[in-house]
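Backbones bend. Shown next:

***
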Amino acid sequence: MADSTQTAQASEAEPQIDDFDDPFASAGASGPRELGVSDAAVKRLRELLAQEEDEGLMLRVTVSGGGCSGYQYAFGFDAETTADDVTFERDGVTVVTDRASLDLLAGGQVDYIDDLVGAYFTVNNPNASSSCGCGVSFSI
């Protein structure tokens, strides 16, 4: 049976996230600089990774300026991390994000929605004061 605990790892050459001294960093609305992964997201990621036939792939989550609410999420697969990345693992899947994006994602959870509107990854983000109807953009 897979371990359902989540762990965060900084890239090998970088200090641990707790040691990172960034005066512009935010602890996030719910505290620690962590990013969770829902059961639904884990399930869908396993399905997608099986189709890709590359066990080294990770889901990369980034935040950039834009979208109808000010910031927008982007999701894609990546096989490599950079010195600025932080990884989060749960039940055999890995999610990676850069430290700047983590400032806006801290305390959030990557989720997968499959309903009448469509099927998509989103972030349940406690730092967002509002978001658009599609769940892809948000404001703080």
